[in-house]
Each structure stands twice: as C-alpha cells, then as structure tokens.
Amino acid sequence: MIRKGKRMTKQRRVILETLRRTKSHPTADWIYKEAKKELPDLSLGTVYRNLNKLKEEGEILELSFGSTFSRYDGNPENHYHFLCLQCDRMYDVDLPLQDNLEKLVEKELGCRVTSHRMEFYGKCGECLGNTKNTMP
Ligand code: ZN
Ligand code: MN
Q1: Ligand 1 centroid distance, CA of 27 (Å)
Q2: In a domain, 2, yes or no
Q3: CATH number, domain with residue 17
Q4: Averaged over 45-53, what is the pLDDT?
Q5: Is there a domain that residue 4 lies in?
Q6: Residues 86 and 57 in one domain
Q7: DSSP result, the chain
Q8: Does a structural domain hold residue 5?
Q9: N or C: which end of the chain has fewer CB within 10 A?
C-alpha cells in the first residue's frame, strides 16, 4: 500500500510538472503523451484521476468552455483567456481582474459575488497574419 501511494505521488508530481512546463493549455490526452515519456506505465485513466485530484486541491484549473473536451491550466490563479476559433489555441490574457464588474453585478442583483470567469473568442494575431509584437 505504501509503495502504491508513493507511486501515485510520483505520477501526480510528473503530471503537474508536465502541465506547468507548457503555456498551451493542453488536453488530458496531450498531458498523457508527454508524461508517458517519463512514466512508461502511465494510463490515460490515471492521468484523468490525477488531474481531477489536482483540480480539487486547487493546484490546476480545468477549462471546459467552448470545447467538447477539457483543457488544463497549471496556473490556478483566476485569469482570463482568449480562444482562437481558427487555430484552437488558447492564450492567457494578462489583464488585471475586472473587479468592477463584480460590483456592477452586485448592484444589479443585490447579491454578493465571490468570483467570476471571463473568456474571449475570436481570431488570434498569428491567424490574422500579424507579425510578432503587433497583436490587434
Ligand atoms: Zn489562431
Ligand atoms: Mn491560463
């Protein structure tokens, strides 16, 4: 049992490290293929189980919008995303959280807002043919 527990811990660590090495917001399948290079015995089910656990522990984010399968983010802090509808790439949006929107919703509904999510959709700079450093 102890040995099994230790192996689980190592799997979880490798899965987390694999996810944190990339900024691409990958799918479980991508994480599985990458982590398998380090853990040849790894199964996709194990990857899903560990991703769920990491999500519960607040180590990662599961991003499930606009897609039939989830994508994962090694940065658990609330931040915004832009999804390119042409190339399906997901970008971080480095804007401060718009807390004023929460105030507006609270005023509108007389409620208490504790968090919010925001996603942007469109065509990314690369798909628009822009050269580096000239995002639209
Ligand atoms: Zn694109
Ligand atoms: Mn992100």
Answers
A1: 17
A2: no
A3: 1.10.10.10
A4: 96
A5: no
A6: no
A7: -HHHHHHHHHHHHHHHHHHHT-SS--BHHHHHHHHHTT-TT--HHHHHHHHHHHHHTTSSEEE-TTSSS-EEES--S--EEEEETTT--EEEE-----HHHHHHHHHHHT--------EEEE--TTTTTPPTT---
A8: no
A9: N
Q: What is the pLDDT of residues 89-133, one digit of tens each?
A: 999 999 999 999 999 999 999 999 999 989 999 999 999 998 665
Mean pLDDT, residues 16-21 taken together:
96
| 61 Cα–ligand 2 center, Å | 8
Which pLDDT does position 130 carry in this prediction?
80
For the whole model, what pTM was predicted? Answer: 0.79
Same domain for 46 and 91, yes or no, is no
CA of residue 80 to ligand 2 center, whole Å: 7
Residues, beta carbon < 5 Å, ion ligand 2:
73, 92
pLDDT at 136: 46
Task: Tell me how many domains the chain contains.
Answer: 2
Domain of residue 57 covers 10-73
Cα of 92 from ligand 2 centre, angstroms: 5
CATH code of 84's domain = 3.30.1490.190
Question: How far does the centroid of ligand 2 lie from the alpha carbon of residue 109, in Å?
Answer: 29
Rounded to the nearest angstrom, the distance between the alpha carbon of 130 and the centre of ligand 2 is 22
User: What are the pLDDT digits (tens) for 82-95?
Assistant: 999 999 999 999 99
